[in-house]
Design brief:
Largest sheet: 6 strands, mixed
Radius of gyration: 15 Å
Number of helices: 7
CATH architecture: 3-Layer(aba) Sandwich
Structural class: alpha+beta
Strand content: 25-35%
Oligomer: single chain
CATH superfamily: Gcn5-related N-acetyltransferase (GNAT)
Strand order of the largest sheet: 1-2-3-4-6-5
């Protein structure tokens, strides 16, 4: 990751920890059509991922920044689009298939709960993550800049 991408990622983490990640119980476990998984290796938290309906996550963000979201909303009802949120695997546990297992569990849960599709955003610089998402059928719908050099990609998977 470039310096600009690393800075954007650090800001994202800070924002996450002070918003939905500050209360996983309230934001994911007690909301309808939302949940959160944690992968453990022994006693270590190896990774995690959450799901929320799109309009729960950050609706102002979509209205202000994500023009590609408009085309998605025209084909899928917004409350039936799941958002992949906070996907992360600890560096010491990467390369063990944990990301794929979390993603497969996430997608099955979304299908079981009758979502019509899944949307996510990630930094373009996170090439391994992008490869994983494309390998299960996500398609890049567009991209936008956060700052002068950092590119965020918007992915969509329709069921």
């Amino acid at each position: 990751m470039t310096g600009a991408d690393a800075e954007a990622h650090a800001q994202y983490l800070e924002r996450s920890l002070s918003s939905d990640m500050a209360s996983i119980q309230r934001e994911y476990m007690e909301r309808d059509s939302s949940t959160f998984w944690v992968a453990l290796v022994g006693d270590d938290v190896a990774g995690f991922v959450g799901v929320q309906p799109c309009q729960v996550g950050d609706p102002e963000f979509y209205q202000e920044q994500l023009s590609a979201f408009e085309s998605m909303k025209s084909t899928l009802h917004p409350d039936r689009i799941a958002e992949l949120r906070r996907m992360h695997v600890s560096p010491k546990h990467r390369g063990k298939g944990i990301s794929r297992l979390l993603l497969e569990r996430f997608l099955q849960w979304c299908r079981d709960h009758q979502f019509a599709g899944v949307h996510l955003t990630t930094l373009q610089a996170m090439t391994v993550a992008g490869h994983l998402y494309r390998s299960v059928g996500f398609v890049v719908q567009g991209s936008f800049h956060v700052g002068p050099k950092t590119v965020v990609q918007h992915y969509l998977l329709k069921f």
